[in-house]
Design brief:
Blueprint (H helix, E strand, L loop, with lengths): L10 H7 L5 H12 L14 E7 L7 H21 L3 E7 L39 H15 L5 E4 H7 L3 H9 L1 H8 L5 H6 L3 E3 L12 E5 L4 E5 L5 E5 L5 E3 L1 H12 L6 E2 L3 H13 L9 E2 L2 E2 L16 H7 L2 H9 L6 E2 L4 H16 L4 H4 L3 H5 L13 H11 L4 H11 L9 H18 L10 H15 L7 H14 L5 H13 L7 H8 L1 H12 L7
Parallel strand pairs: 1-2, 2-3, 9-10, 11-12
Antiparallel strand pairs: 4-8, 5-6, 6-7
Helix pairs in contact: 1-3, 2-3, 3-12, 6-9, 7-10, 9-10, 12-13, 16-18, 19-20, 19-23, 20-22
Length: about 550
């Protein structure tokens, strides 16, 4: 996820980027236009173009966190290539929010209960590794982003509020208090309107983030007055970390204070983007260019929810596939709702390998439209030997092995020049294919006996394989498998291949048979067919 040096990008590549249809370049051009137009984008006074991603640290990083940072990084790199302007990416943690309930997935819950309502950075760490719960989750976020090699600067809301970095913008909110209220109040119900204030003071006695009506506000003094639980009027500064802002006002204030130029967000935040943009303009700021991405769905087409637990964790994806395949999933059609469940993993792994194999043969203009260019910030690795994830899954299936060495035995027999050291991508896929097979394929295997027609065809295929040289190419083997199916007079050859999968592999779908036989071995496949025809249990 590293960036190119903007100054090292050739004018030729920049010209190609200006016409690329890849969505990161489309986003980059929209931002370029906002900053002055094609070829005329002006560097902001702060000295860089700022990209931002936001994070709520009441929970641990999840697959949506990865997706937002990965996609933003792709746009950031595309923008640098297009304009040559320097950029930064802030990963912003809203760690000053008050914690409303005890999370269900943490130890030592009793430590948290007495501190509900306080900012996350003022709550004890239930893991007992950091000075607060907020600091712990912030550390987890940074470790998570570092693991994938993202380039970013971490920003803590607590530190920004307390350091005074937000003071000028907070006074601006106070000066435009009525305008902010005019934006927000019409969106609230009657009861909430009666108590709403954009400012949330921190109780000086308890440290709790208070949601109380503001009775008075004075922009010149930089203060608000509110009534505490005891009915006493309290005056407090809004600066120096003594107050924080409600969500939509907070987002607008942050855009204004940090001069954020680009931030993407999910479809569920469309209204928030609209309202925060209006507040930002009221404060004299300029809302960032925004991409609204669609949300993920589960295998039933239902919206994925962290609270429901119907999603797929990053750790789960990485048990079965590489980070690059996850990046490809995030790259593909961000504005289209996509189902995110285990069945999509093999397809994304194989599509990544295909895109990678094509990259070196493409013209430069086509390379800029290839997803691997964006996944690897313009520098994808050299492709390795072509073995699909599905082929590896089926090899694991017939080997019934959890040992990588067993699969590598077959791979090196086909390609003696390959080994785990020279083909590290393939080595990772071998390990993950075994995991995927053990967890998803093996439990669902259902072998069946062949029909009379299928038995005859399998017998003919066995005879053909027995007379075949062990070094016969995958293409020649595939041709022979086709011929056997034709001679057996299958009305649809797909039924012939489906029979091979169900009888020999115990599954309804499978690999290209020629490639599989070449990898598993001509003799070994002949023996497998013989065992199936003899009625042996192939699941053992």
């Amino acid at each position: 996820m590293s960036k190119n040096n903007p100054e090292a990008i050739s004018s030729h590549i920049r010209e190609l980027a200006g016409h690329s249809n890849a969505w990161p370049f489309q986003e980059a051009r929209a931002l370029e236009k906002k900053l002055g137009g094609a070829g005329k984008a002006k560097l902001p006074e702060k000295g860089y173009v700022l990209f931002e991603t936001g994070y709520g640290p009441s929970g641990l990083p999840h697959i949506g966190t990865f997706g937002e940072v990965a996609r933003t990084t792709m746009v950031r790199h595309a923008f640098e290539v297009l304009t040559g302007l320097p950029t930064k990416l802030f990963a912003f943690s809203d760690d000053m929010d008050g914690l409303r309930k005890v999370p269900g997935n943490i130890p030592n819950k009793e430590l948290i209960e007495p501190h509900l309502g306080k900012p996350l950075t003022q709550i004890p760490d239930p893991f007992k590794t950091h000075e607060s719960f907020g600091h712990h989750n912030n550390a987890r976020l940074q470790a998570f982003l570092d693991e994938f090699g993202f380039e970013y600067e971490f920003k803590s809301a607590t530190e920004e509020y307390q350091s005074g970095r937000f003071d000028e913008a907070l006074i601006g909110v106070l000066a435009h208090y009525d305008k902010v209220m005019e934006v927000i109040l019409p969106t609230l119900g009657a009861e909430r309107r009666a108590t709403y204030s954009p400012f949330l003071p921190l109780c000086p006695d308890t440290g709790v983030v208070l949601q109380v009506p503001v009775l008075e506000h004075d922009a010149n003094a930089g203060t608000i007055v509110y009534e505490n639980e005891a009915g006493k009027k309290v005056e407090t500064l809004v600066t120096g970390g003594l107050c924080k802002l409600q969500w939509k006002a907070d987002w607008a204030m942050r855009w204004t204070a940090l001069e954020v130029d680009y931030e993407m967000s999910g479809k569920d935040l469309i209204d928030s983007v609209h309202l925060s943009s209006r507040i930002c303009r009221a404060l004299g700021g300029r809302p960032p260019t925004n991409l609204t991405y669609e949300l993920f769905l589960d295998d039933q087409g239902e919206k994925i929810s962290k609270s429901r637990g119907n999603g797929l964790a990053v750790e789960e994806w990485l048990r079965y596939a590489t980070p690059e395949s996850l990046s490809l999933f995030m790259y593909q059609k961000p504005k289209t709702a996509k189902r995110l469940f285990f069945d999509v993993i093999p397809k994304n792994v194989d599509e990544y390998l295909i895109f990678l194999s094509k990259f070196g043969e493409q013209e430069e203009k086509d390379q800029l439209n290839n997803p691997v260019w964006h996944i690897h910030s313009g520098h994808p690795p050299a492709p390795e030997i072509q073995l699909s994830f599905n082929i590896l899954l089926n090899l694991a299936s017939v080997c019934h092995s959890e040992d990588k060495a067993v699969l590598w035995h077959f791979i090196t027999r086909l390609r003696p020049d390959a080994n785990p050291e020279s083909a590290p991508i393939l080595d990772k896929l071998v390990e993950r294919a075994i995991n995927y097979y053990q967890d998803f394929v093996k439990p669902n295997k259902k072998f069946r006996q062949p029909s009379e027609q299928e038995r005859g065809a399998l017998e003919a295929l066995k005879v053909s394989l027995d007379g075949m040289d062990v070094s016969t190419s995958a293409e020649d083997i595939q041709t022979q498998v086709y011929e056997v199916g034709k001679q057996a007079e299958f009305e649809n050859l797909r039924d012939w291949f489906k029979a091979c999968y169900e009888v020999l592999l115990g599954q309804e779908q499978g690999p290209r048979m020629g490639s599989f036989i070449a990898l598993y071995g001509v003799k070994e496949t002949s023996d497998l067919i013989g065992r199936a025809l003899a009625g042996e249990d192939l699941s053992a």
